[in-house]
Amino acid sequence: MKLSELVAQYVSHKRALGMRFNSEAATLASFCHRLDGDIDVESVTAEQVHDFLTGNRPLTNHWGKRRSVLDCLFRFALSRGYVTASPLPRYSPKLPPPLIPYIYSQQELKRLLDVASAACSPYGLLDAYVLRALILILYGACLRHGEALRLTMQDVDLDEAVLHVRESKFYRSRLVPLGADLNSAMQAYARQRNQRFGQAPAAPFFCLRDGRPLSQKAVCKAFQRQRTLANIQREGGASCQPRLHDLRHSGAVHRLIAWYRCGADLQLLLPQLATYLGHIDLAGTQRYLTLTPELLNAASTRFETYVLEVQHE
């Protein structure tokens, strides 16, 4: 069997199981292109796999993701008798530690909003008011940026202050309520947007100047300019800089800090936060949230209050 045939069969199999499998399919397509898809699967060597995984790129955690995709492909091939052995390397190189999410401060969030106009070129396709609204909803509603970009007009009910997020990362839909301030900001955005593009139910809620849906590429480029203008950076080089996705992390962590400060029952509220974020279990939420000095201080203050109460009983 040819490598291209194996990949096509494997991708079809995964999608038949209900998976989108888009990023994995892109990795496999790149693998086919690198090796020439006409090669016999049994002829793929460990050296070819190693060259694809490592190449001339710096070693990052994407190495592990690519290896996992290829490993699953060849396990599939083994289970069907297409190959007699897997060419995957038996040992993994020492990878850099996972990237720690960046938690934006309230001051940094304000600076991001303040420089939105400067980050959007008057000759480009992205308007500043759209970028500003996107930043607000990613942070305030803790959305993944893909979820926000896929929102249509029928998904956004600002009269009831709720978003309908359809088939997100784990192929589940959920309702996301909006706070009063965020809903008011989205209403102001919607009025400006609707004057230009109308309110067709299937039209994108966030759109470019020509009415097309926002693309991830356009948004990420604008956000990089926005982050630079706001002077938000950290050590570690280009691959370690604060990301658009970290707005979601920041919104969740700031919510956790607020709960700590008001003495709320965290054990009771964490499952609710997991549902709000679209996680399938509590473990995902616990791993997702990143402790910050501010959160540790809040936790310490709450513990001291508890100790004093016990001493006075």
UniProtKB/TrEMBL annotation:
Molecular function in Gene Ontology: DNA binding
Entry protein name: Integrase family protein
Biological source species: Caballeronia terrestris
Entry similarity comment: Belongs to the 'phage' integrase family.
Residue ranges constituting the Tyr recombinase domain according to the UniProt record: 99-301
InterPro entries: DNA_brk_join_enz, Integrase-like_cat_sf, Integrase_catalytic, Tyrosine_recombinase_XerCD
GO biological process: DNA integration; DNA recombination
Family matches, as PANTHER family: INTEGRASE_RECOMBINASE PROTEIN MJ0367-RELATED, PHAGE INTEGRASE-RELATED
Pfam families assigned to the protein according to its UniProt record, in alphabetical order: Phage_integrase
Lineage: Bacteria, Pseudomonadati, Pseudomonadota, Betaproteobacteria, Burkholderiales
Keywords (A to Z) from UniProt: DNA integration, DNA recombination, DNA-binding
